[in-house]
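pinned: reference chain
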Amino acid sequence: MKQYHPPFSITNQMLDLVSSIMEKVGNLDHYDNLNKMPILRKNNRICSIHSSLAIEANSLSLNQVKDVIDGKFVIGEQKEIQEVKNAYKAYNTMEDLDPYSMEDLKKIHGVLTYLTVDESGVFRKGNEGVFDGDKCIFMAPKPEMVEPLMSQLFVWMENNKEQLHPLILSSLFHYELVFIHPFCDGNGRTARLWQNVILSNWKGIFSYVPIESQLRKYQEDYYRAIDRCNKAGNSNEFIEFMLKMIDEVLAQFVKSTNQEMYSYNKYVKRLLEIMDYNIPMSANEIMGKLGIKSKETLRNTYLDPAIKSGLIKRTIPDKATSKNQMYYKV
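pinned: its structure tokens
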């Protein structure tokens, strides 16, 4: 078989987006400080997992996903609960994976689809296609072509990783895996995770950036870009789309991270450390965790500065002094 070369070309839009992303990444060179913010890291990872699974029609809510990961009892389909457990384990092993190893790709697919897919961690043995009703709108390469195509794709990546920017390379791989469709199920989840593996191997900050959340917001555009590339015979539009998604989610990430790191004093920082995202707490509960007894101190030293900075919100914003008032971290 002729050596596989992914069809694409570098466009001016790709270069402009890479430049914009690099500028934002530069603003996050201090990302090591995120190691001091485990709740932020964990919540971003939960958002990634929830969004990636939701794209594939997993119906569990964000709070349910969080509860599954926290080991709490959740009422839901067992398969969907298992998918969450699998994804959390897979995302937590990203740093141990070689982005240019096909065997590692199979291994992580096995983790993602454990107990939910019969052919887990192995390439498919049957034909796969995308259907619109009874009409086949895309037929994936034949099963006997999967192993050679994937092998050559990984060889090509290894040979070009020094010449092609990781942002473009990871987006190209994302599309190529979806196109080749090497697994009987879980191709989208694997492709999205593997793009993170490539990017976090380049810059550790991408271990914390919830790109999948942005994809879920633009899910129809995501699938439309894939379909257009299938018809065009190259991955240009998909690469541009993914770079745009990464640029947008990084802009949000820079803002929220800088807010977390710089927009509060030591008292607000302490307040944020004892609160979880989107979990309401009463003033008495907060005081108990902080070890203070004065509501005036709580209000003036902790809550008011945090609310002013947009880090904490009231459950009843129009009645600040309501006896039922609670506070939550955003």
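why pinned: The chain has a mean pLDDT of 92. The chain is about 60% helix and 5% strand.
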